[in-house]
């Protein structure tokens, strides 16, 4: 299947899926049009992740690291939508929770990236933020060649050992990883589990292929989420 046919097939599948999620045909068509326009506008913003410029670039944007919340039909989805609405209305980023292990992960991520590059004899290009359009974006841990990305996790040693034994990416990261592949239009991700304390096996790499069927589902949910987010902001702007 060539690229043009594949994109046409994916768009038809997305149209069908959105029609199931959204009963109103007019709303469904509007969502589909927004998605179609978004495909053309992807851009890479060159900045340092976690810098002020990075926070500004992702202000009010639905990001891949939060796609699991978009798919959550319970409280997480609404809370995340209100957070993004607040950022768009105030122009001020809302602080995110970070525990000590997450902070440590940010510190040693460069070590993991360098280890991966040496182990695979490749160049890992770092980017700040990738916007698929004005509403959706991601922050890849690295781009590899023309088709690949890496997603680095620096977990507790017990979790790192579990990743080695199972040799499978934990399911909680599927929305994030498939979301980055969707946004960046890439074909595979090397999921990197890294812990220097496990000195006999500090790095474990799990190859994850692009799943177009999953991405169609994800894109539809993200498109509906964005539509509802904009409706929420319009309602507040217009004073109910």
Query: In CATH's first tier, which class of the largest domain applies?
Result: Alpha Beta
Order of helices and strands: HHEHEHHHEEEEEHHEEH
Question: How many strands in all?
Answer: 9
User: In percent, how much strand structure appears in the residues?
Assistant: 15-25%
Average of the residue pLDDT scores: 86
Number of helices: 9
Spans where pLDDT lies below 50 across 5 or more residues: 1-9, 36-40
Q: Tell me about the biggest sheet?
A: 5 strands, mixed
Helix-strand makeup class: alpha+beta
CATH architecture of the largest domain: Alpha-Beta Complex
Q: Would you tell me which CATH topology of the largest domain applies?
A: Lambda Exonuclease, Chain A
How far the N terminus sits from the C terminus, by CA atoms, comes to 49 Å
Rg, rounded, reads: 19 Å
Strand order of the largest sheet: 3-6-7-8-9
Q: Characteristics of this structure?
A:
five-stranded mixed β-sheet, four-stranded mixed β-sheet, Lambda Exonuclease, Chain A, 9 helices, disordered N terminus, 240 residues, 54% helix, alpha+beta, 2 domains, 9 strands
